[in-house]
Structure formats: structure tokens, C-alpha cells
Amino acid sequence: MMSTFFIPLPFLPSHILLDFFLQFLIDSLQMAKKIVLLFILSTLVGCSGLERSEQKKVRQQNLTVSPIERQEDEVFFPFPEIKVQKRASYPWESKRIGAHLRITKEFFRCRGNVLNPPIQLHKYKKLVYHLDCGGIERHSLPIKDGREFIYPILIDLLNHIQEKTGRRVLITCGHRCPAHNLYSDASKGARSSKHLIGGEVDFYVEGFEENPTAIVEVLQEYYGATFQRSNRFSNGATPSWYNKEVAITLYHSHEGRDFDNDHPYPYLSLQALFDRESRRAVRFNWHQAYNGYLKN
Prior knowledge:
Strand content: 15-25%
């Protein structure tokens, strides 16, 4: 008859058995976490490899060249002869006319300056002091449709003069703000000058200081017609030349002198009468003159 033997175990306290069980459980969880991470990593590697193989198959299919099939009686359309066209110049590439800068609206900016000394004027039967404006640092050119504006015909004609004569046009007076207009010319007639709306310019041409009528002939060549004559555009001794679009007034060395035209030469005043864009006559507008520009 066989006997059963029991190996006596040492008696362990309950708290030691509990610590042993908890440590065994923690080790099992860490081992399971490693197994799960290894499984996820192997799955991702397998998927990326499969994707690369699929991409390679697609590239090979796309690179397959199929023959072009044509019929026997097909007719090809003739290609027109390719002609090289000259590129149009950008604005910054045509800044000069010959040796001189092309005139733009920047040449018309007000010539007022805060450093000019105050002048005395009679206002409401009182003698008052009047200061000049701050010039280009204090206000803009006239504003039209949200942009600074000078009547384009004035710019075109001045550039035409430079192109035909090869000489520089010197603008003595372009746009005037109300403050500088009063400072330059306090006469009653100057209050409605088209200088206030960018519709008039005073100038002379280097080399033609004593022969301004030659410049008038250049302007007549621009229009291909002879101007009419009238005294209604100025109070000078010489009748003005005019057509539908512009009027030209000649001021001799003893006429038309003001702060901006304080030089010894005769000069020409070019005034816009008709605007091609709006197809309307150019008339002085009080609101436009005194409120139609930006102030700092």
C-alpha cells in the first residue's frame, strides 16, 4: 500500500503573499503591453510595405506606352507659322523720353512749404497773416474714383513737347491746394483757377524760354489743326490758342507773375477744356477744388 507524502511549506504571512501576487500581476501586464506594441508595429510595417508594392504596380501601369492608331485617310491640320512678337514695355521701362524723365502726375504736386514766411492779406476788411501749406507732406493731388488724378491730356501734351523738341519741360505750377493757391495769388480771379482741380499747368521749355510760340506750334502739330484765338481764357495781352480740348495762354515776362511763377521768362499755361474719359467739359467745381483731396 502506497503512502502519500506532503512536503511541508514554510508558513508565510498573508501580507507577503499579497505582495508576491501583486508583483506577479504587474509583471504580467507589462509583458502583455510589450506583446501588443510588437503586434501593432509589425502590422504597420506590413501595411506600408503593401502600399509601396501597390504604388509600384500603378507606376508600371502608367508607364505602359499604348500605340497611337490612325486611319489611312487622316489629314493633318497645318500649323500656322510662329512669329516672334515684341513684348510691350512695362511702365518702369519707359521712364525716359530721350535724355529726360517722362512726365507723370508726380510732377504736378503742390509746391507749398511750411518754411515759407507768412504773408499779409486783407480779409473781411482786416489785415491778417496767411501761412503756406505743407506741400506734398500734408495733402494729396485731387482725388477721382479713389485715386490721385491729373487730367491726362495735360501729361500727354507735355511729354509730346519733350519728345518733339528733345528739351526738358519745367513745370512751374501744377496742382495747388486752396491754402497754397491763396498764398501764391491772392487775386479774386485765382479763387476759381483750374489749378485747384488738376486741370491746369504752367510751364516753360529749356532752350525755348524766349521763343514760347514755337512750343504752341508743336502742340498744334499734335492735333494736326490750327487753333482758334480768343481773349476769354486769360487777362493777358496775347489772345489764347484753343480748340475743343485745351486752351494755351502765353504770359510774357511782365505778365502773370505770382509766387510759383517768380522767374524772368515768358511761360505757357495749358488748361484742360474737355475730358476724353468722361466725355464732359472740364469746369471749375468749388466742392471738388476745396474738398476733393486728402489732408494729413
